[in-house]
């Protein structure tokens, strides 16, 4: 029993000697109920990283069909519009999946086609 206690003590001492950098007894840090926020790194710090950037909002605000999408969303309502948009996206994904099955494409190609469809829809303004 003392050998087990001695080995666990030496393990704790060796992890401390390696400098794992825990500032509290909990390995995940202090969870005092406050949410983590993205804080930009000051240029005076000696990190080689760039500053953090918080991205909010819709990056697909432009596009040929964006005005029509925004107007129809305002007329119909956000909840109904998002439900309708979800159904259309699901139908389009099913069409892509059936096409991939028909030509014998693997799942990576199918995922790539769906991702390309999303990017094209964003550029055209369907995701505004």
Task: Give a description of the structure.
The protein is mainly α and 128 residues long. 56% of the residues lie in helices and 0% in strands. It contains four helices and no strands. The radius of gyration is 26 Å and the shape is flat. 1% of the residues are buried.
Rounded to the nearest angstrom, the radius of gyration is 26 Å
Q: Summarize the amount of helix as a percent range.
A: 55-70%
State the shape: flat
Oligomeric category: single chain
Strand content: under 5%
How many helical stretches? 4
Please give the number of β-strands.
Answer: 0
Average pLDDT taken over every residue: 75
Low-confidence stretches: 5-17, 21-34
Question: Which helices and strands, and how do they pair?
Answer:
Blueprint: H1 2-18, H2 66-76, H3 78-103, H4 107-124
Keyphrases for this structure?
56% helix; mainly alpha; 128 residues
What's a concise summary of this model?
The chain has 128 residues and is an all-alpha fold. The chain has helices at residues 2-18, 66-76, 78-103, 107-124. The chain is flat and about 40 Å long.
